[in-house]
Design a protein that fits this description.
Rossmann fold; five-stranded parallel β-sheet; binds zinc ion
C-alpha cells in the first residue's frame, strides 16, 4: 500500500523502523489475563520533507478523545508569553485557541482578549500539530483563521535528540509526526508560511525538548534545505537496538520497579521487551492503581511500595517538571541505598552511558 506523507502529502514514504506488535498505550488492563488487541506499528520517513511518522499501526479512531488528559509541560510559558508580546500586534488583539490546552498561555498574554470568532491576530496551537493525521490540512485551516497580519504560535515536542540517541520514549501512537526544528518549519513553508523559532533556555525544555515556532504569511517562506535529518533518521533503528542491549545489561540481575505508569514507560518497556526485568510499576493516580500495564501486564502499586518491597532499583518515568517531586517521594528509598535512574536519554538522571551511545 502506497501511503501519503502526513506532513506534506507527497507519496514518498519509506519504511524506517518496525516497532513490533503493540497494544494501545492508554489501555490499562483490569486483570493480568486480559487479552489486548495488538497492531503492528511501523515508523516511516518522508523522502520529500524528511518528517518521521507512523506509517502503519493504530489509527486515530482508536484514541481517547480527551487529549487534555495528558499534561503538557508548562514551565517555559512565561518565556514564550514574553516573546509573543514583542510581536507587532494591534493594541487590543484577538487571541484564538486551537485547543483548551492553550488557555494558560493565553491568560499570560496581557493586552489580548480570548475570542471564539476568527479572524484572530494570534492563534495559539500548542501540542496539536504532532497529533495531526494531515498536517497540511490543519495548517490551511489555521491559516484561514488568522487576519492577514496575524500570527500562529505552534509548539510541538522536539524529537531530534531522541532520534539521535535512539530513545524510544518519544514514540506514542497518538503522536503521528516527529519533528525537528527543520522538518516542522519545512512543513510550514510547504503550506506557504514563513516561520521563526523561539529558542528556549535549556533548563526550560529539558527532557521534553520543546520546539516553539511563530508562523505567518506576511513574507514568502524560505526554501529549507540541508540538515542532518535523513542521516540521523536512518541511524535510528541501530541506536534503538543499542539502547535495548544497554538496558538489558543494565537491568539484568537487579530487583527493579518503575515510577510513573504513563505511555512513555509503556512504550519503552514494550518496544524493548523489558517488562520481564520489572517487579511492578508505582503510581498513585487513583485511575491507574490496581490496574496492569498493557503488554508487560505489570501491576500498578502505590508509590510507597517502592520502599516497602525491597527493590534496589527504580526507573523514573516522569517528565522533567515532575522529576524533583518524584525524587522527594523516593527520599526514604534512596537513603536506604536504592538507586533511581530516568528512562529519558535527555534527563540528567539517565544512566551516564545512555548519552554516550550516540
Ligand atoms: Zn513529507
Amino acid at each position: 500500500m502506497v501511503q501519503a506523507c502526513r506532513a506534506c502529502d507527497s507519496m514518498q514514504l519509506s519504511s524506517l523502523l518496525d516497532c513490533g506488535e503493540l497494544p494501545l498505550s492508554h489501555h490499562l488492563s483490569t486483570s493480568k489475563e486480559e487479552a489486548l488487541a495488538l497492531a503492528r506499528m511501523r515508523l516511516g520517513i518522508c523522502e520529500q520533507c524528511e518528517t518521521i511518522q507512523w506509517s502503519e499501526g493504530w489509527t486515530s479512531n482508536y484514541f481517547q478523545s480527551d487529549r487534555n488528559l495528558y499534561r503538557e509541560p508548562e514551565r517555559h510559558l512565561d518565556t514564550i508569553a514574553a516573546q509573543l508580546q514583542t510581536l507587532p500586534l494591534p493594541k487590543a488583539f484577538r487571541i484564538g485557541l486551537a485547543s483548551e490546552k492553550d488557555r494558560s498561555l493565553a491568560n499570560r498574554l496581557t493586552g489580548g482578549s480570548i475570542s471564539n470568532e476568527p479572524p484572530y491576530d494570534l492563534l495559539l496551537a500548542r501540542h496539536i500539530a504532532e497529533h495531526s493525521d494531515l498536517l497540511s490540512q490543519s495548517i490551511t485551516e489555521w491559516r484561514s483563521q488568522i487576519s492577514p497580519n496575524g500570527f500562529i504560535y505552534l509548539e510541538v515536542p522536539d524529537a531530534s535528540q531522541a532520534i539521535k540517541t535512539g530513545d524510544v520514549t518519544v514514540l506514542w501512537e497518538q503522536h503521528r509526526l516527529y519533528f525537528s526544528s527543520l522538518t516542522l518549519r519545512r512543513a510550514l513553508a510547504m503550506s506557504g508560511l514563513f516561520s521563526t523559532e523561539i529558542f528556549l533556555p535549556r533548563e526550560e525544555s529539558r527532557n521534553e525538548g520543546i520546539l516553539a515556532v511563530i508562523a505567518h504569511s506576511h513574507s514568502d517562506p524560505q526554501l529549507l534545505t540541508g540538515g542532518e535529518e535523513k542521516r540521523l533518521a536512518l541511524a535510528f533503528p541501530f541506536r534503538v537496538a543499542q539502547q535495548k542491549k544497554f538496558w538489558e545489561n543494565y537491568l539484568e540481575g537487579k530487583k527493579v520497579a518503575a515510577l510513573g505508569a504513563g505511555h512513555d514507560l509503556i512504550t519503552f518497556l514494550n518496544i524493548h521487551h523489558l517488562g520481564r526485568y520489572l517487579e511492578f510499576v508505582a503510581d498513585d493516580d487513583p485511575e491507574k492503581l490496581g490496574r496492569f500495564l498493557p503488554g508487560s501486564q505489570l501491576p500498578i502499586l502505590p508509590v510507597t511500595a517502592v520502599r516497602r518491597s525491597r527493590v534496589d532499583f527504580c526507573l523514573l518515568a516522569v517528565n522533567a517538571e515532575s522529576e524533583e517531586r518524584a525524587l522527594t517521594r523516593l527520599t526514604d528509598f534512596r537513603e536506604q541505598g536504592g538507586e533511581v535512574v530516568s528512562i529519558y536519554s535527555l534527563s540528567s538522571l539517565a544512566p551516564p552511558t545512555v548519552h554516550q551511545l550516540s
